[in-house]
C-alpha cells in the first residue's frame, strides 16, 4: 500500500544572510512539521549561498534521491534572487515569464505603483512550471516536477505550504510521544538501545538538557503506529523506574 511506503523530502535553504548569521532561519522547523503531517519525512537540509553553481549542485544532488525537494529563499525581485535561474539550469530548461504569474502581479501591484521590471522578475519560472498560490504578497511560489520553490519569508512560506496541504502523495504521518527524566542520557543509553531494538518500527531520540543546576533528558519515541509508541513508552517508563529514576510522561 502507498501509505506504508516512506516518502522523503529534502530542503535547500538559500541565502547569504542565513550563512552570515544576520538572519535566523525559521523555515526548517515549519517545513519539517508540515511534511510530517503530510506523511513525508524530511531527510536532509542544506544551507547554500546565493551562488548559482552551489544551488545547481545542491538541487541536482537532492532531487534525484528524494521524492520531493523544497527550496526557500531567492525568488524575490532583486538581482541576488537567483533561485529560479539556478533551478532552471539544474533541470536543463529555459526561464520564461509565466502568463498567470504576470497577471497575478499586475493585479496585485495595480494600486501599489504598477508592475515594473524588478517586480516582473517574480513572474519568471523554469519552463513547464506550475504556480503555488501566495495569498499574502501576490508573488507565487513555483513547482516544477518534484521541486518546489518557496519564499524565504517564513510567514509567506507558511501560506504556500498551506496551499499545498493535501496535494502531495505521502504515507502515514510520523507520530511521537515523549518520556522525560532527570538523568544523564549516558546512564540510560543501554535502556534506550534495548527498547528500540525490541520494538521494531520505533525510533527513539534522546535530547539532553541542563536546568536548575542538574542534567536531564527527554526521550522522543516516534513511529507511524500509535500502539507501538505506547508499548515503547511503557517499556521506557518501566526501565527508568526500575533504575530508581523518575519517569515523566509528556517530558520534563
Helix content: 25-40%
Q: In what range is the share of β-strand residues?
A: 25-35%
Major sheet size, sense and barrel closure: 6 strands, mixed
Number of helices: 9
Write down how many β-strands occur, each being a DSSP E stretch of 2 or more residues.
12
Structural class call reads alpha/beta
Distance between the termini: 37 Å
Rounded mean pLDDT score:
95
- Which consecutive residue ranges, at least 5 long each, have pLDDT under 50? none
Tell me, what's the shape?
Answer: elongated
Radius of gyration: 22 Å
Order of secondary-structure elements:
EHHEHEHEHHEEEEHEHEEHE
Across the major sheet, the strand order is 2-1-3-8-7-6
Reconstruct the topology from this structure.
Layout: E1 7-14, H1 16-20, H2 27-37, E2 40-48, H3 52-63, E3 68-72, H4 83-91, E4 95-97, H5 99-108, H6 117-120, E5 124-126, E6 130-132, E7 141-144, E8 147-150, H7 154-164, E9 175-181, H8 189-198, E10 203-211, E11 214-223, H9 226-242, E12 248-249
Parallel strand pairs: 1-2, 1-3, 3-8
Antiparallel strand pairs: 4-5, 6-7, 7-8, 9-11, 9-12, 10-11
Helix pairs in contact: 2-7, 3-4, 8-9
Summarize this entry quickly:
The protein is of the alpha/beta class and 252 residues long. 35% of the residues lie in helices and 27% in strands. A six-stranded mixed sheet has the order 2-1-3-8-7-6, with helices on both faces. Strands 10-11-9-12 form a four-stranded antiparallel sheet.
Amino acid at each position: 500500500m502507498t501509505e506504508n511506503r516512506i516518502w522523503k523530502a529534502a530542503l535547500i535553504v538559500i541565502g547569504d544572510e542565513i550563512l552570515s548569521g544576520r538572519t535566523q532561519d525559521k523555515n526548517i522547523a515549519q517545513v519539517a512539521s508540515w511534511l510530517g503531517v503530510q506523511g513525508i519525512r524530511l531527510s536532509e537540509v542544506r544551507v547554500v549561498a546565493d551562488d548559482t553553481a552551489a544551488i545547481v549542485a545542491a538541487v541536482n544532488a537532492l532531487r534525484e534521491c528524494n521524492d520531493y525537494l523544497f527550496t526557500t529563499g531567492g525568488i524575490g525581485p532583486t538581482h541576488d534572487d537567483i533561485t529560479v535561474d539556478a533551478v532552471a539550469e539544474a533541470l536543463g530548461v529555459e526561464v520564461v515569464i509565466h502568463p498567470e504569474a504576470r497577471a497575478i502581479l499586475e493585479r496585485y501591484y495595480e494600486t501599489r505603483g504598477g508592475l515594473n521590471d524588478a517586480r516582473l522578475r517574480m513572474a519568471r519560472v523554469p519552463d513547464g512550471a506550475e504556480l503555488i498560490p501566495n495569498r499574502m504578497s501576490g508573488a507565487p511560489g513555483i513547482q516544477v516536477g518534484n521541486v518546489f520553490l518557496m519564499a524565504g519569508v517564513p510567514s509567506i512560506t507558511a501560506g504556500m505550504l498551506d496551499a499545498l496541504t493535501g496535494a502531495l502523495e505521502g504515507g502515514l504521518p510520523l507520530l511521537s510521544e515523549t518520556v522525560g527524566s532527570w538523568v544523564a542520557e549516558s546512564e540510560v543509553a543501554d535502556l534506550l538501545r534495548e527498547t528500540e531494538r525490541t520494538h521494531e518500527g520505533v525510533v527513539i531520540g534522546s535530547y539532553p538538557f541542563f536546568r536548575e543546576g542538574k542534567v536531564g533528558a527527554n526521550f522522543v519515541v516516534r513511529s507511524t503506529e500509535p500502539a507501538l509508541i505506547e508499548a515503547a513508552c511503557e517499556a521506557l517508563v518501566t526501565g527508568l523506574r526500575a533504575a530508581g529514576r523518575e519517569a515523566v510522561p509528556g517530558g520534563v
